[in-house]
Amino acid sequence: MQQQSDKQVVFRTEGVTRVYRTGAVEVRALRGVDLALYEHEMVVLLGASGSGKSTLLNILGGLDQPTDGKVFFRDQELTRVSDARLTAFRRDHVGFVFQFYNLVPSLTARENVALVTEIAKNPMSPEEALERVGLKPRMDHFPSELSGGEQQRVAIARAIAKRPEVLLCDEPTGALDSKTGVQVLEALYEVNRDLGTATVLITHNAGIQKIAHRVVVLADGRITRDEVNAARVLPSEVSW
């Protein structure tokens, strides 16, 4: 686990395991993961399907609980807390971006973002959030009137509108072509750069790791590589 003593730790896991059981079948999705995520950094979680990336992301985001081990958000232990506390944690501190956009079809881009700003403690306006991802001219369009990349950028605007400390992204370019995927990566890159939002981005595309401050590689539920990226590039320079 890379140490960055000059930065504050946002997330820390200690020996996290996750075992799923279906009858007599046991699947070990995570096998003793130690990881730290620091303020302001962008981390890419890289690995093949089944490596444990999404399971780890879900545990960090409070969508799942480890079978064993501990998870900390700053100085707060999240392990085995109540559902109400996890809900409050997700609402107040974490933004999620998934492969599929999960927009409400009957609402405009602005209205989809407002679903979050209406319940957040200190949100930016939907208009500001959409402007940050380059969609100010499209904010009154419905999802059916937007391209896939535009819909994903609405999803990013929705995630950042509550000013989360952490942005967790699970294959956000997985359903997009390379040109559109670069536009989505640029939006995430700029959010991390301009707002300082600690960002974790899951991908199986090795080219995307080049935009990160740090790259963490998983295989068979274990971290096999965790290193600072010495040759960080802009999203437009990513090879797909």
Low-confidence runs of at least 5 consecutive residues? none
Helix and strand pattern: EEEHEEHEHHHEHEEE
At the first level of CATH, the class is Alpha Beta
List the total number of helices: 6
Distinctive features:
28% helix, Rossmann fold, 240 residues, alpha/beta, 6 helices, 29% strand, four-stranded antiparallel β-sheet, 10 strands, six-stranded mixed β-sheet
Please, could you describe this protein's structure?
The protein is α/β, with parallel strands linked by helices. It has a single domain, classed as 3-Layer(aba) Sandwich (Rossmann fold). It is 28% helix and 29% strand. The protein contains 6 helices and 10 strands, in the order βββαββαβαααβαβββ. Strand 9 and strand 10 form a beta hairpin. Helix 3 crosses helix 4. The radius of gyration is 17 Å and the shape is globular. The model has no long low-confidence stretch (mean pLDDT 92).
Task: Give a nutshell description of this structure.
The chain is of the alpha/beta class and 240 residues long.
Write the layout of secondary structure elements.
Blueprint: E1 9-22, E2 25-38, E3 42-46, H1 53-60, E4 68-73, E5 76-77, H2 83-93, E6 94-97, H3 109-117, H4 126-132, H5 148-160, E7 166-170, H6 178-195, E8 198-203, E9 214-219, E10 222-228
Parallel strand pairs: 3-8, 3-9, 6-7, 7-8
Antiparallel strand pairs: 1-2, 1-4, 4-5, 9-10
Helix pairs in contact: 3-4, 3-5, 4-5, 5-6
